[in-house]
Amino acid sequence: MRLSLAVGLVLLSGCRFNNEDRQPHQERIVSLSKQYSEILYALGANRDLVAVDLSSTYPPEIKSLPTVGYHRALSAEGIVAVKPTLILHDNNVGPEHVMRQLEQLKLPMKVFQTSAVDIPSTKALISEMGQYFHQEARAQTLNQKLDRDMAEAAQRAAGYTAKPKVMLIHFGRANNIYLTITRASVAGKMIDWAGGEIPIGGERGMLQLSPEVAALADPDVLLLTDFGYDRLGSPEEAFALPGIAATRAAKNKRIHRVEEHDLVYLGPRTGENVLRLQELIHAGETTR
Description:
Elements: H1 5-17, E1 29-31, H2 34-43, E2 49-52, H3 76-81, E3 86-88, H4 96-104, E4 109-110, H5 119-132, H6 136-159, E5 166-174, E6 177-181, H7 186-193, E7 206-209, H8 211-217, E8 221-225, H9 226-232, H10 235-239, H11 248-251, E9 255-258, H12 270-281
Parallel strand pairs: 1-2, 1-3, 3-4, 5-8, 8-9
Antiparallel strand pairs: 5-6, 6-7
Helix pairs in contact: 5-6, 6-12
C-alpha cells in the first residue's frame, strides 16, 4: 500500500525539526538486524536506538523498545511512525516495495560493508561499527575477548575424546514436522567449534524433517530453541516427542533448552556461546 505523500512529509518534518523529539536522542536509530542490534548494545552505542525489528531479542533490555515488525515483513507506516533519522539493515529485509517506499521518503539507511560469516569477519564488523559510532576502544576490547573465548573453546575441543551427534530443533513441533538446523547453518559452525557435529546435512540452514528421519539420525544430544522448548511445558514432554523418544538423547535425558538468538548469528558473544554449548554437549565426557 502506497503511503500518502502528505502524511510522509508531516512525519518526516517531525523527525527532522522537532527539537522535543530529538531529546534526549541526537539521532533516532531503527535497527532491522538482530546482529547489528546486539553489537550496538555491546559497543555501548545504543543510546539513540528508538526501535528494532521483532528478531532483535538480545540483550534482554532491548525488549523494552518499540518494534516495527519482522525484518522480512516490514511496513513503511510502522517504521515512519517512530520518526527515524537513520535506519540500519543488513540487506536481509523486505518486502521490496516497502524498502522502495522508504527510499522514496529519503529516509537515511546504512548497511555496513562487512558480512560476519566467520570469526575474522565478525571482528571486522565489530570494528567497522565501532568506528562508525566512535567506539573504537570498546570494539577492540570486544574483539580481544572474542579471541580469548574462541581460543579457550578450541583448546577444550581438542581434548575431548568423543564428537557427539547434536540435533537442534528450531521451533519445536508443528503437525509432527520438526524444523531442524543443518550443518550449513551458523549453529552448525558453532557446534563444530564446540567439538560436536550435526548429523543433518543440506545446502540450506534449516530443513523440515519427519519424526521417522529424526529417529534415524539418533542424536546423542538434542537442543531445543527457547520457543519450542517453552511451548512443550516440561522436560518430560520433550523426552516423549514422536521420533525423539527412541533416540539416545531422550533415553539419556540429554535434551536441553537453548536461546535462539545465541545460535543464529555471529557476534561479540559467539565465543561465550560456544563455551556454553561445550558444557551441554560434552557433559560428563572424559578428556585427553
